[in-house]
Amino acid sequence: MLIGFLVLLVLQFVGELIVMYTGMPVPGPVVGMVLLLVGLIVNGGVPEVLRQPSEALLKHLALLFVPAGVGLMLHFGLLKDDWLAISVALVVSTALAILITTLILNRSAKKLQQLEESE
Amino acid sequence: MEFWVFFSAKPLMWLIITIAVFLSSSWFNRRVGNTPLLHPVLVSLTLIIAFLLLTGTPYEIYFEGAQFIHFLLGPATVALAVPLYDHFGRVRKMLLPLVVACMAGAVTAAASALLVAKALDASTGTLLSLAPKSVTSPIAIGIAEKLGGYPSLASGLVLVTGALGCILAPPIYRILNVEDEAVKGFGLGVAAHGMGTAFAFEYGLMAGAFGGLAMGMTGAFTAFMLPLLIPLLGIG
Question: What is the CA radius of gyration of chain A?
Fold first, then answer.
């Protein structure tokens, strides 16, 4: 468990270093996540020592958003000015994203099913 | 210099309040049938912000205690690779259409949000915080920070997007006549991250698994895509 947690922290650290030295505008932990994914694919499985701390963290992921979210109280002015733009943008973009993703995938899902049936 | 042995009382109090309020909100949400409109994070934010405003406590003081929870977002983001790996195994055969659908969905989500908000005269700070709104919170907070938006505004918009996705998806699936469980789950994961994924589990385990896969893929892809998309749209 502790070894796994250390691995997560070290990969985040390596991710942050890569971001710092390459100047990539990507969050360090995301680079760490890609490194871990590549590592798991190479390894061909998730070691138990890594699965335990990962699942413990992800089980309570929602709690981890709260401190940043409370920072919304600093942005009431912005919300007051831009609430209409934000609301319309959120509704339109969420509907469009579901629509486009589903349209693309539905076609290939049907094709795949036909392929499997014809095999 | 005094040696710092124990955590002093005040930061500890905010840490306790954060966890206690979140636990109560989660319990309350289960009691009202897990509705995304009363998501535990949304309820916790409202209660804690109200309490801070009532007691006249500045956010910086609150964060002195809460930062110890916030810090765990980093390792938790790295840990997202574990469920992502688990799902990858199941879907190797369909990987190409899934990757294409995820990329198209992620670009659509970000570009349409930015264009609509820009047309309605939103400020640049708002636009940069709006860009990662379909991405799971830990990644979205990181992205907003990198882009020069407001991480806390971004995390709030991510939550609202999640709730909207759960409300909008069922009628869209009815109109498009989508029956495939995997497709339903994947669409929810791309547009509405973890909240969409949780909702997708109600269609079935398969839908939930595809939602989780979509959430991870969309998060990683969006982190690399937005720095290219934003200058293209002439923002920032």
Answer: 21
Residues 6+ apart with CB under 8 A from B111: B229, B233
CB B79 within 8 A of CB A8: yes
- Its pTM stands at 0.86
A92: contact with B, CB 8 A cutoff:
yes
Q: What is the four-CA torsion angle of B64, B65, B68, B71, rounded to 10 degrees?
A: -40
Give the gap in angstroms from C-alpha A40 to the nearest C-alpha of chain B. Answer: 7
Residue B200 to residues A92, A112, A117, B29, B77, Cα–Cα distance (Å): 21, 21, 26, 17, 21
Q: Does A114 touch chain B (CB under 8 A)?
A: no
Which ipTM was obtained for this model? 0.89
Main-chain phi, psi angles of A27, to 5 degrees? -60, 135
Please count the CA atoms within 13 angstroms of the CA of A10 that sit on its side-chain side.
8
Question: What tokens were used for A105?
Answer: 């995938």
Closest residue in chain A to residue B178, using alpha carbons only: A106
Q: Tens digits of per-residue pLDDT, A5-60? A: 999 999 999 999 999 999 888 899 999 999 999 999 999 999 999 999 999 998 88
Q: Give the model confidence (pLDDT) of B61-87 as tens digits.
A: 999 999 999 999 999 999 989 988 988
